[in-house]
Amino acid sequence: PYKSIKFKKVSRRGLGLKKDNIYLISVGRIVKRKGFDFLIKSLAKLNNKQIHVLIIGEGPEKKNLINLARELDVRNQVHFLGFVSEEKKFQYLDNSDTYILSSVHEGFGIVLQEAMQVGLPIIATDNGGQVDLIKNKENGFLIKFDDVGEMIKKINMLLKNKKLREKMKKNNLKKVKEF
Hints:
single chain; about 40% helix; alpha/beta; 6 strands; about 15% strand; globular; 6-stranded parallel sheet
């Protein structure tokens, strides 16, 4: 069973993050099927310099993704954090605004439970184990893989609607206790 992880709270400044930016976070091995390119393309189309993406993990696709971010002119908004300790991972999750799972397919998402533990709203692709964790509009959104338009719509919806973010936060904090 999933057990809640205790970690030391830290401010955004303590992590070198800017107070006023919006942070989308994703955790996972940097491989093609994780769909980080989908996330970066969506970020570019959002066309908002205040929105940044934090990617925790390492993998063979990293160089390609750095090049993609450069090509799409969002290199300064995509932060590859590499491997970090469990505690640091939770500190980044805790200081982010939305968790994004952009995979082609996912098994049973432990990272989603971790995101739920800190009350993050979640935007996830609708293929795999995450459909058991995410109830549309309750604790997150499910979208089709590689649907950039839909990803942008959901990110903007969360940015503009504080009530919705609060509801998803509450629901995720409650739901994670079931696991």
